[in-house]
Amino acid sequence: MTELDRYLQAATRDNTRRSYRAAIEHFEVTWGGFLPATSDSVARYLVAHAGVLSINTLKLRLSALAQWHNSQGFADPTKAPVVRKVFKGIRALHPAREKQAEPLQLQHLEQVVSCLELEVQTARAEGDRPGLLRARRDMALILLGFWRGFRSDELCRLQVEHVQASAGSGISLYLPRSKSDRDNLGKTYQTPALQRLCPVQAYIDWISEAALVRGPVFRAVDRWGHLGEEGLHANSVIPLLRQALERAGIAAELYTSHSLRRGFASWAHQSGWDLKSLMSYVGWKDMKSAMRYIEASPFLGMARITQRPVES
Question: Out of 3.90.190.20, 1.10.150.130, 1.20.1250.20, 3.10.450.50, which CATH number does the structure's domain 3-93 have?
Fold first, then answer.
C-alpha cells in the first residue's frame, strides 16, 4: 500500500468501507449488475428490492454505488433524475417506521448493575477469576455507555492511556476520532462521579482488577481469565448487553448498544435538561439527530396545563 492509498483509506471509516464493499458485491454478484452502471440499471435495481430492503439500506446502496463511480472516475448514475424519482416513489409506496432500539430505563440500569455486583461477590467468594473479570468489565462498559452516551464503537476504542479517572470526582476520556468528529480533531469527554451507579468507580474497579496500564480498556476474557490484546469489537457489545440484561431477569431482545445512548438521552430529557445542553454533552450536531433519541411523552405539556392551581 502506497502512502497515498494509506491516507485515502484512513479517510473512510472501517464500518463504512465494509458496508460499501458489501453493497457493491450485492449489486454486482447477487443481483447481477454491471459496473460502471447506467442510471437505468440502478433504477431497476431499486425496483427489484423495493419493499424488501429498508429505505435506509437502499440509501446506503446508492451511496456505495456513488462512491465507487466517483472513485473510479465515472459519472455518478445515482444522481440521474430517473433514479431520484424511483427512490422517491419507493419511499411513498413503502413507508416504514424507522426501527429504534428500546431505551434502557434507569430502573433497568439499576437492576442489571445490582445483578453484576452480586456476580462480583459470588465470583470472588468462589475464586472464579474469569467470572469476576467479566462482571467488572460489563459493569464498567454499561455504566460508561449509559452516563456518557457513547456508541459501541466509541466504547471499544477507548484506550487506558487516554482515560483519567479520579474516585469521587470524575473521569475524562479522550477519543482521537468518532462518528461526530468528521475532521478527526479528537475530543475529550467528561463525566462526574455519582453517589450510585457510578461510572467512574466502575471503571476504576475494572482497570484495577484487570491490572490494565495501557491499550484497549474493554477486552475479551477467555475461560482461564486471560485478557485479549485487542479491544472488543463493536458488534460484541449487543450480545454482551443482552446477556447481562437476561441474567438480571430483563427481556432483552429489543435492546441494542444504542439502548444505552437512548436511555441516557431519555433520562436527561425527563430530568429537565434543555436540548442544547443535551446535544453538547452527547455530541449531536443537529436537532433532528437528537430528537430521534429522546423519549418524550406527548401528554407532559397537557398535564401542566390541566393541573389545578394551588389555593392560597
Answer: 1.10.150.130
Spatial contact of 171 and 205, defined as CB atoms under 8 Å apart? no
Residue 264 has φ and ψ, to the nearest 5°, of -65, -45
Residue ranges of domains in the chain: 3-93, 106-293
Residue closest to 44 by CA, chosen among 80, 96, 5: 80
Provide the grid cell at 205. 474497579
Please give the Cα distance from 222 to 228 (Å, whole number).
8
- Residues 91-117 as b/e (b if ≥16 CB within 10 A, e otherwise) read eeeeeeeeeebbbbbbebbeebbebbe
How far apart CA 35 and CA 151 sit, in angstroms, is 35
Give tens-digit pLDDT for 211-266: 999 999 999 999 999 999 999 998 899 999 999 999 999 998 889 988 999 999 88
Interacting residues of 276 by C-beta distance below 8 A, sequence separation 6+ = none
Cell of 269: 430529557
pLDDT 10s digits, 116-144: 999 999 999 999 999 999 999 999 999 99
CATH topology of domain 106-293: hpI Integrase; Chain A (1.10.443)
Q: What are phi and psi of 20, to 5 degrees?
A: -65, -40
Q: What is the pTM of this model?
A: 0.71
C-alpha cell at 203: 471503571
